[in-house]
Each structure stands twice: as C-alpha cells, then as structure tokens.
Amino acid sequence: MPKSHGHPRSLEAQMEHSNREEREEADSPPAPEEEESVQESRADAEATQSDEWWNPTAPKPDWAETVSEESVTEVIPRKEPGTADVYFCGLTNLLSLNRALRAIAKEKLTGLLRSYWDEEPIDLLARDGEIVLVTTRDPDLYCPDTPDILSGVDVVMVDRARDNQRKDGTPFLLALLREESIARDTGMELIQEYGQKLFSKLWTASRVWIMFEKNADLLSEAGDIPGHPDVSEWALETLRLAQSPDQPASFDPASIPAYTKDGFERVQKLKLNSDEAQFASQFNGARSLQQMAKNLRLDLKSIRQLLFRFLALEIVECWPGSTAAKPEGKSIFQRLGRSRRRD
C-alpha cells in the first residue's frame, strides 16, 4: 500500500475549510474580464443615452437629399439675354456722378442708373450712351407743383397717371402725353425739364449710392422719347438747377483753382454761359478765388456757385493758397516791355 503523506484531516476540518473558501469567493470582486465587460456595456448605454439627448433625430429636409450632377445643372438659373446686369456701383464720394455719366456716354450703355438717397430712389434711363429721361416713383418729388399744361386736363386722369407712377415709375406726364391729354412737344419739354430738376437734387446730397444696370428691356416702351446726345452738356444743365450748392465750411477764398488733366480740353466743348465763360478765363494756376471775384466784380456767393459746377464736372481742382497775399506775376511779354523801356 502506498504510504500516505501527512496525517489525514478530520471530517469537521474539511467542512470548515470548504465553508471558508465559499465565503472568500463571495466576498472577493469579480474577475477582470467580467468587470471590463460590465463597464463597457455601462459606458455604451450612457453614450447612447447622451447621443440621443444631444442629437435628437430630426426629419431630413428636402434640399438635403442627394441629387445628381444633371439635376444640379438644371436647378442653377441660366442668364437669359436682356436680363439685368450690374455694370458699376458705389457711393458718390468714391464714384462721382460725373464719372458715372461719362462712363455711360463713353461705353454707350443702355439701361438704368439708380440713385439711392434719403428719399425715393431716382432712376435715369440711358440708351446707347444718351440720357432718355429721369423719373422716380414719388410723383410729388418728381413734380411738386402743378404745370399750367394740366389746367384743362381731367383731374381723374391726372390722379390715375400719378397712381401709375407710384407703381412702375412711369412719369405721369408721359402717360398723359400718350393718352393725348397734353400736347406732345410741350409734354416732351416738361419731361426733360422735370427730369433735370429731379436729378439736380443728387448733386447736393451728402451720401448717394448709385448702381447702373445694363438692361435693354427697360427701354422697350421709351422708343418714342429722344435722348440727349451730349451727357456733359446735360449734366451742366442739371448743375445750373441745383439749389443752394454752397461749398462746405472748408471753402477758402484764398484757394487757387486749376484745371485738371483733361479739364481744359473738356471745358472747350461745353456751351458755357457768360458768367461761366468769364470764370473759366480766370484760371492761370496762381489766381485765387478772391482775386477772381474782384476781377469779375462778383460776390463770393456767386463765385462759390460757379466753382461748384466746375468741381462737380471735375474740370478744376482747388489748391490751398499761401497765407500771405502775393501780387499776381506778370507775363513774360510784360517783363520784356518793361526792360525795353528801361533801355
């Protein structure tokens, strides 16, 4: 018989050892693998709950559906011929009215020059570089008084024409002309006169946003209206109608006006009145405004108004005068004559 190693344990000792192992297993923590699986399942549950709270399921919009390239190409609107096309835009302190008008004439543009300011926008229609008419949707701004030509016209027809101008901007005088309620020649003259008066308000406005849209369709119903061929001449006429064109407080009678780079060439092409022509003859690059007023026997207010027109047309620019008044320099012929007399 094989020999037993050690002494055999009693039954009570074996039972006590077995009970002790069961108690140790009950008190000990779970195995590492079981603990990781429990933690992962708990984290997944928390993450699922957190995602559901943070990103609630929303119905998918129609525009978010995936579309093919062909359908995208069909959705993008194509530019049709004759539609509006912005040619230039900007504030008048950067893009002056004069440059905008000259660009219309130089490029022979056809379309609408819209000016946004404190009141109802003012629209200028141009055709092939010529000014056709100026209008606005406010008939009271367009024609604040009642012309004599309307004395014999039915009041109902005049009110209806004014209401139509509020809708589409067509001058009510033009509507009455086409209805043969007023004479054509007189009506055309009034349309040009009130259009120039309306545009003249923009020269003295502080901040004006201008935008030109190339659109030939806008002139489809204005084919019977003749255009003004000389834009610079038309602009000068509107400047003569400008109300209170006083210069800012920085106006200095001692300043010296001088022609711009192309100012002398452009002023030769304008039909100046007598005051404007005499004022233009005084520019020599050294004569001050105060001296011009003395030579022309005009007050400074009149000189200011004349200078306003030439500055707006960018014909001249003013340079600051010297602090001390200096006598005007004599020409070379006067100096030669003086030296001969001395001899």
The geometry reads as globular
* Helix content estimate: 40-55%
Spans of at least 5 consecutive residues with low confidence: 1-15, 28-32, 47-83, 323-327, 331-336
Strand order of the largest sheet: 1-5-2-3-4
Average pLDDT over all residues: 78
Q: Enumerate how many helices there are, as a single number.
A: 14
The description of the largest β-sheet is: 5 strands, antiparallel
How much is the radius of gyration in Å? 43 Å
Strand content: 5-15%
Compute the number of strand runs. 7
Cα separation of the termini:
168 Å
What order do the helices and strands follow?
A: HHHEHEEEHHHHEHEHHHHEH
| Protein structure class | alpha+beta
Features:
46% helix, 7 strands, 5-stranded antiparallel sheet
Secondary-structure blueprint:
Elements: H1 11-27, H2 32-54, H3 69-75, E1 85-91, H4 97-107, E2 111-116, E3 122-127, E4 130-136, H5 139-142, H6 155-168, H7 172-178, H8 184-203, E5 209-214, H9 231-240, E6 256-259, H10 263-267, H11 274-280, H12 289-296, H13 300-312, E7 316-319, H14 332-342
Antiparallel strand pairs: 1-5, 2-3, 2-5, 3-4, 6-7
